[in-house]
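Hi R.,

Here's the chain you asked about this morning:
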Amino acid sequence: MKELLFMLADLWMIFAGFSCGWKFIRRYGNYLLGLEWMIVATSGSNFLVWSLIGGDPGSVLYDIAYFFDAFSRSVGITLILVMGLMRVTRRYKPTLAVDIGVFALAIVAGLYLQQFRGHELHVGPATFYVVVNAFTTLFLAYFSWRLWKIRAKGLAIGAALATAAGTAIALIYDFFPIPGDDAYRTIHYILALTTWGFQLFVYFISYRALHNHNVATGAEPASNEPSVARA
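And here is the predicted structure, written out as C-alpha cells:
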C-alpha cells in the first residue's frame, strides 16, 4: 500500500511539474519558473525509475536524484522561485543572461553538494537548506498577501498552506525523521512528493491570478509570449 501511495504521489508531482512548467513558458514566457518546474518533474521521473528498479544507492540514478534534489533545494525552489514569481509581484523581467546565470549557479550548487550524499545528517548543508527555505518562505508570505490583496482569498490561503507544508517537509527532511518510517523513508517521500506537487500547482494558479489582475488593471500587457517577454 505504501509503495502504491508513493508512486501516485510521485506521478502527481511529475504531472504538476511538466504541465504547469510548460504553461509558464508557453503562456507567460517565464523561463525561470517553467524550466524549474520541469526540472522538478524530471527529478521525480528519475526518482520513480530508480525506485522501480530496486532503489540501489550505488546506482547512477541515485547520483542523479541527489543532484536534482540539491539543485532545487539550494537554488531552484528558492532563488529561482522568488525571481520567477517577482514577474507578477514586481514586474521583474530578468535578461537571458540572468536566466542562464542563475541556472548555472544552481548546477554548481548541485554538483558541490553531491559530496554530502547519503542518509547521514550533515549539519552544514542541512542548516543551509533550512536557512534558504526560511528566506524563501518570507517572500512566499508576501506572495500570499498579494493574492489576498486582490481578493483571491482562496488562493492566498492555498499558497500559504502549501508554503507551510513545504517548510515542514524541509525541516523533517534532515532534522526530524518520521518515527517508524522504513529505510527508504517511504512515508516521508509520500508526504514530500504530495506536498511538492501541491506547491507546483498552487503557485502556478496563483501566478495566473496575479497575472490576470495585472492585465486587468493595466499593469502589464495581455500578451506575454516568450518573444514579447524577451523584447
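One quick note: The domain at 2-229 is CATH 1.20.1070 (Rhopdopsin 7-helix transmembrane proteins).

Cheers,
M.
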